[in-house]
Every structure is written in structure tokens, then in C-alpha cells.
Design goal:
The complex is a heterodimer of chains A (about 450) and B (about 260). With about 450 residues, chain A is α+β, with helices and mostly antiparallel strands. Chain A folds into three domains: about 190 residues, Up-down Bundle (Multidrug efflux transporter AcrB transmembrane fold); about 80 residues, Alpha-Beta Plaits (2-Layer Sandwich); about 100 residues, Gyrase A, domain 2, CATH 3.30.1360. Helix content of chain A is about 50%, strand content about 25%. Chain A contains eleven helices and 17 strands. A four-stranded antiparallel sheet of chain A has the order 7-8-6-16. In chain A, strand 3 and strand 4 form a beta hairpin. Chain A starts with a helix and ends in a 14-residue tail after the last helix. With about 260 residues, chain B is mainly alpha-helical. Chain B has two domains: about 210 residues, Up-down Bundle (Multidrug efflux transporter AcrB transmembrane fold), CATH 1.20.1640; about 45 residues, no CATH class. Helices cover about 75% and strands about 5% of the residues of chain B. In chain B, helix 4 runs parallel beside helix 6, helix 5 runs antiparallel to helix 6 and helix 6 runs antiparallel to helix 7. Chain B is elongated. Chain B starts with 7 loop residues before the first helix and ends with a helix. Chains A and B meet through helix 4, strand 16, helix 7, helix 9 and helix 10 of A and helix 3, strand 3, helix 4, helix 6 and helix 7 of B.
């Protein structure tokens, strides 16, 4: 009994802790009682601590997946034809960092870029929550944005000897976007047109100085992705490493170009393998509908348990409440990215969570029927039901693990939707084992008083 | 006590009544696969029109929405999805591996837990029963109502498999327990008693899950409607298959062994 008292205290503390972590807003209270000011302030919790090297930082909001928040997901295939086998993983990794830099600069919050290798395919999975202009985002992600400075080639026209040599073409120099240290939006002094100012890094500054010296009074072309952006004439030798790219941009175009130049070029060309765009309204509808469905389903389950099992059912429903609370807390702490199938997995796990209760209660009734006293029946019920609860849940855990694919085996699925479902299902099983066995058992020991008669009729609460 | 197992062949016949039309449909029409498996593009608009094309880029989709907007100003894109065909092939392969791996592990788990191969094999057969019911019904639904099978359906199938086994283990556990207490009784009697004793638990447990899934199916919104339906069909089949497929098979297994013992 002493041990159970400890458990009861533990459960009570756990519930309070979970309630606190689930606080939806700052709790404030102040009132005058007997001319004395009582005030009380409990801010919404935030977690931020450091354990050795790992930083643990949570704002404790539910993290919504793309199908609930709206946004887009793109799977890109990196073309590795030009890259040797040993350096392909590195190339993929640097493509990933370039894309995440571009996405960050573009201002998408909580974007993720992941890499995945399937057979001979090198893939990048980009998730952009809240993006409502998919084409713009695609341009940003996929463009190679290689900036090259090109020098002019002159050729004398053989038909008219003695005439000035004509400008025929530009050839790329070794001065490229890689030599940039910073690109910024600026406005031209004469006509206030948006333009992009660039600054070269050390070796680039020297190269640029050499070019401007060599081609003084001649045009120098700026090529972006092999198309001519502008070809300003060099007015003077520039040794400071500053230049301006102008090309009758709109402000947005100038911003876009600056972003791309800052983020650098993609080391490998990419193409779109699959793409998914979900509008924010669809996400909102889905949340509303799932919450409604969940609430109604949960009420029916609760009503059924109470009607059929009486006081036992009431305690099972309290256990279910604790289950939901712990689940919500873990979702916030881990954090679990909630997707629609994930929500469905959670709702399904509630249906399964009552199973351990039902198993125990049926056992309990059997023991009562066999003529045992209720406290003995209760303990026997839990003891005997444990075997089947254990073996049955192990089977579900096996499937859950195969769906979740924790070791990232490449022959199994790794899609976000399936994993989201698997994670909520797995968490559901472990939490329901805890609430179904430990919590309900402790509550029953303290708050339940059974009868020793055979309960042929369902008891009334 | 009700003599449940007297009608064991009737239960199997009932199952076949559902499985055979489904299997014929599966063989003739197959499943209506979504772009998750075939590749292609689907554009959904706010007036719930769905445009399917073999291959559409974002730009083409935007243009299409723009053109349709001229007629109906409030029209908006709700979702747009496009998938390369190679990805679809890969998904099919991965699905098959997942199902095979799950079956193998569950067979090992049950055989180990019950220390007899027949428990594992019969539980696996009951699982097969449930997947055939589910696939068959969705093949019919696909042929007659155009309901597609997508990646979530795979998830639902695997979940149903685990639920089916979950339910079967509860009954088998009872047989195992009774075996320890009454080692001289026949499998037939033990199985009968086990089915009787777990019937209410099975019914109640299935009911709670069915309540939840019904709510999800009726109110949960379009994106998870058929996911919930698949789980619902699977749960019902899984609840039926534990006492009425897995246990009868166990008894029939024993019958067969006995009659073979007599002839040899």
C-alpha cells in the first residue's frame, strides 16, 4: 500500500506537470480579498536548457505538418552525372546547405531540407510551411544562379580592312559568383532604378582590379545562368572590389538576385521529382474536422465505458484523460510534427488504450463470478490480463516500428505521412500501457469500492 | 456455454462469401492506384473539381487556375501534387517489403510466445484473411465508385494487420492459459471455452475502436475519409477473424493432424 501511495503521488505530480506544460496562455490572477492584494502570475512555460553539448529549446507549441499548416513539399533529384562516385554524398550535402541558406534568406520559417539516397538516386526533400507562391519558391530552390563576369572579344571584319575591330562575343573569365562576399539591393544614382551592389572577397578583388585595368573603356559582361544581364562599360580601374549590377530590375527581382548570389550556386543541377502544395485553408478545415471527430468519438467511447462498467468505467475514463494529457505533453516536448494521419493515429490509439482496461475489467468480473472478494479479484484481474496485453501490444509495436523505420533502412518507406502516423501510434501504445496498467490500477486501489456479488447487470455509477 | 466451434466451417464459408467476390475483382480489375504509385499530377480547386494529368508543372497548374479564374473569380487552388513515375514504382516495392517483413516478424513473435508453430501460422492466416477482405472491398470500391488506393491505404493495411494479430493473441492467450490448467482437455473444448470467455472483451474493444473510426469517417474531412474507411473495414474484419477464423483454423489444424495420425 505504501508503494501505491507513492505511485498515487507520482501520478498526481505528473498530471500537474503536464497541465502546466499544456498551459495555453499566461495565467494571471489578482484580486482584493479583505483589503489585501493577492496577485498570482504563472507565465506559459518555455524550455531552454543545455545538457553538455546538446541544447534543448522548446516553445511548447504544437508543431503542425504541411497538411495542417499549408505549404509545399518538393522532392528534388540531384543530377550526379558530372560528379565522381566518391564525392557524390558531399555534393548532395553541399546542395542541401545551399538550398537551406536560400530558403532561410527568402524568409520561410521552420523550413526543412533533408537528403535521402535511394539506390542510385540522390534526393533532396524540401518542406516549406506557409508558402503561398509555389512557383516563386520553386525558382528560388531550383535555379543554379551562376554569376560569371565575361570579357569582350574583338575581331576585325575581313570585308572592310582598316575599320575598327567589332565586338563579336564575350568569353567567361575566372571571376565568378564564388568570389563574392556580399550582394545587396541598392538604387542607381541617376534614375533610382533598383540594382544589386556586390562586394568581392580577397582573390576576387584582385581579379576584378585586373579585369577593369585590362578592359578600361570597354564593356564587361555580367552573365547570370549564361544569359546576359548587363554589360556596363568600365569607366575606371576598380581596386576596392565594389561593383553594381544593373539591368532594369524591379525591386522584387533585385531582391531575388541578391538572395541567390548570397546563397551561392548549387553544386549540382536538380530537377523536380515530386511536389505537393497544400493551401492554408485546407489545413484549417482539416484541423477543425479532426478535432470535432475526435471530440465526438472520445465522448462516445467515454459514455460507453461508463454505461457498461459503471464506476470501473469512470476510473477508466479518468485514465483516458491522463492518457490524453501525457500524449499532448509529449507531442509538445519531442516535438511531434502533427499531420492528418498522425492525428488519425492518435484517435485510433485512444480506441486501443481502453482495450487494456476492458481486458482487466472482464477478468475482474470473471474472478468475482468465481466467488472471490473484490480486492483479490482486482489484483488477479491485472495479473492475469498482463500476459495478453504484453504479447498483443508487442505485435503492434513490431508493425509500428516497421512503419516508422527508425534506422532509415532504404528498402522501407520513409515518407513523412507514414512516419507521422507510426510515431503517434507507437507513442500511443507506450503511454496507454502506462495509463492502462499503472494509473488505472493505482486509482482503482484508492478510489474504487467493489461489491462481492456477481455483477450480472452492469453497475450504475 | 455456447458451442461456438460446432459451426467452424460455416464461419469460414461466410468469410469466403466476402473474400471470393473481392478476390475476383482484384484479379480482374485490380486496385485503382493513386498517383502515389503511378506518378502523375492532381490539381484540386476550391469548387472541389479535381484535374488529373499525366504530368503537370507548377507553372502549368498556375496558368490553368488563372484561366479558370476568369470564369469564376473566387476560385482558388486547394492543393496540387505531382509525382514522378519512378517514385511510384519504388513505393510499391517498399510496401511489399514492409508487409513481408511485418508478417515474418509477427510469425516469429507468436510462435515464440506460444511455443507452437500452429499458433503463428493460424494467426498469420487470419491476418491474410483480413488483408484479402480489405483489398477485395477496396478493389470493388475502386471499380464501381472510383475510390483510389494511396500511401495512407498502405498504412491502414499494416495497422489492420497489427490489430488483427492483437485481437487474435488475446484469444490465443486464453487458450494457452486454459491449456496449463486443464491439460487433459481437447483443443476443441479449450478453444470453445476461450472464445466464450473473450467474446465480450473482443466485442467491447472493437466497439470502442469502431466508434472512434466512425466519427473520423463521417466527420473527419475528405483527406482522411477513406483512410478511416479502410481502418474501419479492417477493424471489423479483424474482430471477426480472431474468434471465427484464427480459432477455427487452429481446431481444424488439430482435426487434420489427428485424422492423418489415424490413417498412417
Amino acid at each position: 500500500m505504501r508503494q501505491s501511495r507513492g505511485l498515487l503521488f507520482f501520478i498526481f505530480t505528473l498530471v500537474l506537470f503536464c497541465l502546466y506544460l499544456n498551459l495555453p496562455f499566461d495565467l494571471q490572477f489578482s484580486r482584493k480579498i479583505l483589503n489585501k492584494e493577492f496577485s498570482f502570475n504563472l507565465p506559459r512555460p518555455r524550455i531552454n536548457f543545455r545538457l553538455g553539448k546538446s541544447v534543448f529549446n522548446r516553445d511548447l507549441n504544437f508543431k503542425k505538418g504541411l497538411d495542417l499548416s499549408g505549404g509545399m513539399q518538393v522532392t528534388l533529384l540531384a543530377d550526379m552525372e558530372q560528379i565522381g562516385q566518391p564525392s557524390r554524398t558531399t555534393a548532395l550535402e553541399s546542395a542541401r546547405s545551399v538550398i537551406s541558406r536560400r530558403v532561410d534568406l527568402y524568409g520561410v520559417s521552420e523550413a526543412t531540407v533533408k537528403t535521402s539516397v535511394a539506390g542510385a538516386d540522390y534526393r533532396l526533400i524540401v518542406e516549406l510551411p506557409g508558402v503561398d507562391k509555389p512557383q516563386e519558391a520553386l525558382d528560388l530552390i531550383g535555379q543554379t544562379a551562376s554569376l560569371v563576369f565575361a570579357t569582350p572579344i574583338y575581331q576585325a571584319d575581313p570585308a572592310s580592312p582598316g575599320a575598327e575591330p567589332q565586338l563579336v562575343t564575350f568569353v567567361p573569365s575566372d571571376l565568378t559568383g564564388k568570389d563574392l562576399s556580399l550582394a545587396q539591393v541598392t538604387f542607381e544614382t541617376q534614375n533610382r532604378q533598383p540594382a544589386v551592389s556586390i562586394k568581392f572577397k580577397d582573390p576576387g578583388r584582385d581579379k576584378f582590379a585586373k579585369l577593369t585595368k585590362e578592359f578600361l573603356g570597354k564593356p564587361l559582361a555580367i552573365l547570370l545562368d549564361n544569359s546576359l544581364l548587363s554589360a556596363p562599360t568600365v569607366q575606371s580601374e576598380i581596386t576596392t572590389g565594389d561593383a553594381i549590377i544593373s539591368g532594369s530590375f524591379t525591386l522584387d527581382e533585385a531582391k531575388f538576385l541578391a538572395t541567390q548570389l548570397n546563397a551561392g550556386a548549387l553544386p549540382v543541377p536538380v530537377k523536380i521529382l515530386s511536389q505537393k502544395v497544400i493551401s492554408a485553408t485546407l489545413g484549417e478545415d482539416s484541423i477543425r474536422q479532426s478535432v470535432l471527430a475526435g471530440a465526438i468519438g472520445l465522448s462516445i467511447v467515454a459514455a460507453f465505458m461508463i454505461l457498461y462498467y459503471g464506476w470501473l468505467g469512470v476510473i477508466a475514463v479518468i485514465g483516458l484523460g491522463v492518457y490524453s494529457l501525457i500524449t499532448a505533453t509529449l507531442y509538445r516536448l519531442i516535438p511531434v510534427t502533427l499531420t492528418l494521419p498522425g492525428v488519425a493515429g492518435f484517435l485510433l490509439s485512444i480506441g486501443m488504450a481502453v482495450d487494456s482496461n476492458i481486458l482487466v475489467f472482464e477478468r475482474y468480473r470473471e474472478e468475482i463470478r468465481a466467488g472471490r472478494s473484490w480486492p483479490v479479484s482486482l489484483e488477479l484481474g491485472f495479473g492475469r490480463a498482463w500476459n495478453s496485453i504484453k504479447d498483443a501490444n508487442l505485435a503492434t509495436i513490431i508493425t509500428g516500428l516497421i512503419l516508422f523505420n527508425p534506422l532509415d533502412w532504404s528498402f522501407l518507406n520513409a515518407s513523412g505521412a507514414v512516419r507521422g502516423f507510426a510515431l503517434t501510434l507507437l507513442l500511443g501504445i507506450f503511454i496507454s500501457l502506462f495509463t492502462g496498467i499503472v494509473v488505472t490500477r493505482t486509482l482503482l486501489r484508492f478510489f474504487y469500492h467493489g461489491t462481492n456479488q456477481s455483477p450480472n447487470q452492469p453497475q450504475q455509477p | 456455454m455456447i458451442n461456438w466451434l460446432k459451426l467452424r466451417y460455416l464461419y469460414l464459408a461466410l468469410s469466403l462469401l466476402i473474400i471470393i467476390p473481392g478476390a475476383i475483382s482484384l484479379a480482374r480489375f485490380g486496385l485503382k492506384l493513386s498517383i502515389d504509385f503511378t506518378g502523375g499530377s492532381v490539381l484540386t480547386l476550391s469548387d472541389s473539381t479535381i484535374i488529373r494529368q499525366k504530368d503537370m508543372t507548377q507553372q502549368q497548374a498556375d496558368e490553368m487556375v488563372g484561366k479558370l479564374k476568369e470564369k469564376n473569380k473566387d476560385l482558388k487552388m486547394v492543393s496540387f501534387e505531382t509525382l514522378g513515375p519512378s517514385l511510384g514504382q519504388e513505393t510499391i516495392k517498399k510496401t511489399i517489403y514492409a508487409v513481408l517483413l511485418a508478417s515474418l516478424l509477427i510469425l516469429i513473435h507468436i510462435t515464440r510466445a506460444f511455443k507452437q508453430l500452429k499458433f503463428g501460422v493460424c494467426a498469420l492466416l487470419a491476418m491474410l484473411h483480413d488483408s484479402l477482405v480489405l483489398l477485395g472491398i477496396f478493389s470493388l470500391l475502386g471499380h464501381f465508385f472510383g475510390i483510389e488506393v494511396d500511401l495512407l491505404f498502405v498504412t491502414a493495411t499494416l495497422t489492420v494487420l497489427s490489430f488483427s494479430v492483437h485481437d487474435t493473441i488475446v484469444v490465443y492467450d486464453r487458450i494457452r492459459e486454459l491449456q496449463k490448467r486443464h491439460s487433459n482437455e481437447s483443443v476443441y473444448d479449450l478453444a470453445n471455452q476461450a472464445v466464450s470467455e473473450t467474446m465480450i472483451r473482443s466485442l467491447n474493444n472493437s466497439l470502442t475502436i469502431i466508434f472512434m473510426l466512425l466519427a473520423l469517417f463521417l466527420l473527419g474531412g475528405a483527406s482522411t475519409r477513406f483512410f478511416a474507411l479502410a481502418l474501419l473495414i479492417g477493424t471489423i474484419s479483424g474482430s471477426y477473424s480472431s474468434p471465427f477464423t484464427a480459432v477455427p483454423l487452429l481446431v481444424i489444424w488439430d482435426d487434420l493432424r489427428k485424422s492423418r495420425g489415424r490413417t498412417s
